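Propose amino acids for all 376 sites.
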């Protein structure tokens, strides 16, 4: 619906940064939206050309700027005046030009969870809307800076296009105004954020609706469009498989204790996110459901995936699947309690490949050392 203009689909690597996932998208022509030097290197290792990589994020270091400039990335999305001055200085040192888009904060409520909303004044993201034109004036005078675009991203897991459209309309108005003043705005980055269904009955707006709205807002504005989908691509593609270790009855509650913990799937503990959890084996027809707490092995009371969740009978050794775990699952995982990261497998038809193996305890320990004085 929007292919009547030049479009860069820059996959938001933060959603799922596995090389196998990125390589699959690279083969389809995707670019990448990265927020760290590590994500940039992963994207390039997976086959995404540097000239299809957008570098976002509020805390780019000198080294990350040098890396992006050395590789010749598509653009930096700049989020503050100090960052703009730093990038100019680094580019001068390297005798490079830095193509930038200024990320503006449009003061638009995304309508989702506050922890993943990024378009309001209370968040750390973007340049204040009322200061945007002033920032472009500064950028246009700084050496080695090419202000070529405007970027916006108001949040994640947004179910309706309306708030995004409100932000886009402000950006397009700004682009037209800047062009009238002689600024060479050739790119508009609409970000990402369209949600996926986690609950039965959730019905987010479709990518088709999203595309139509984007095209309608752009109108006849002759710019390249950048989109940064992440969760929309990888979310429903992934599941987390976990094993029941114990079923514990206490004080009138039933705890189903799993071998997966909040270190493996942080979203429920981080912001109360819901995941459907299904038994891998189809339960017996008519089997009663009982309310259980689905919990993990981590020594935290927040290590709970669901409270009073109706589930069919489960016993030790049963497998369950956490649905819609392909985004912000593995990328948010940790080795808390010195638990190895779970393995990741990529499936295509009947083929299954382990694309991240589970580290051994020896490998985990090898990354650390005790100082010599402990042997005294």
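Proposal:
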């Amino acid at each position: 619906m929007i292919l009547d203009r030049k479009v860069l689909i820059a996959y938001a690597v933060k959603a799922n940064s596995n090389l196998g996932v990125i390589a699959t998208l690279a083969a389809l022509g995707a670019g990448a939206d990265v927020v760290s030097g590590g994500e940039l290197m992963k994207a390039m290792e997976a086959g995404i050309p540097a000239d299809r990589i957008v570098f976002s994020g509020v805390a780019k270091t000198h080294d990350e700027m040098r890396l992006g400039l050395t590789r010749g990335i598509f653009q930096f999305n700049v989020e503050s005046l100090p960052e703009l001055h730093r990038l100019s200085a680094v580019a001068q040192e390297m005798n490079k030009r830095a193509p930038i888009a200024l990320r503006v904060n449009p003061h638009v409520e995304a309508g989702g969870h506050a922890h993943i909303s990024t378009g309001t004044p209370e968040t750390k993201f973007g340049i204040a809307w009322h200061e945007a034109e002033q920032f472009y004036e500064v950028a246009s005078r700084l050496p080695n800076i090419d202000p070529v675009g405007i970027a916006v991203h108001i949040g994640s897991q947004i179910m309706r296009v309306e708030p995004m459209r409100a932000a886009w309309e402000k950006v397009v108005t700004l682009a037209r105004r800047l062009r009238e003043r002689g600024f060479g705005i050739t790119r508009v980055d609409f970000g990402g954020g369209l949600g996926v269904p986690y609950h039965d009955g959730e019905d987010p707006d479709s990518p088709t609706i999203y595309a139509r709205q984007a095209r309608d807002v752009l109108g006849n504005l002759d710019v390249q469009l950048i989109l940064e989908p992440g969760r929309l691509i990888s979310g429903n593609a992934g599941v987390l498989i976990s094993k029941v270790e114990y079923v514990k009855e206490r004080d009138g509650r039933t705890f189903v204790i799993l071998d997966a913990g909040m270190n493996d799937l942080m979203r429920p503990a981080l912001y109360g996110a819901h995941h459907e959890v299904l038994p891998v084996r189809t339960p017996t027809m008519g089997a009663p459901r009982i309310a259980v707490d689905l919990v993990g092995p981590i020594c935290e009371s927040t290590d709970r995936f669901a409270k009073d969740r109706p589930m069919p009978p489960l016993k030790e050794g049963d497998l369950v699947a956490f649905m819609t775990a392909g985004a912000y699952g593995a990328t948010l995982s940790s080795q808390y309690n010195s638990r190895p990261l779970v393995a990741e497998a990529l499936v295509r038809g009947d083929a299954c490949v382990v694309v991240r193996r589970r580290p051994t305890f020896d490998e985990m320990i090898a990354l650390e050392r005790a100082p010599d004085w402990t042997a005294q």
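The chain has two domains: 7-233, 238-359. The longest helix spans residues 162-180.
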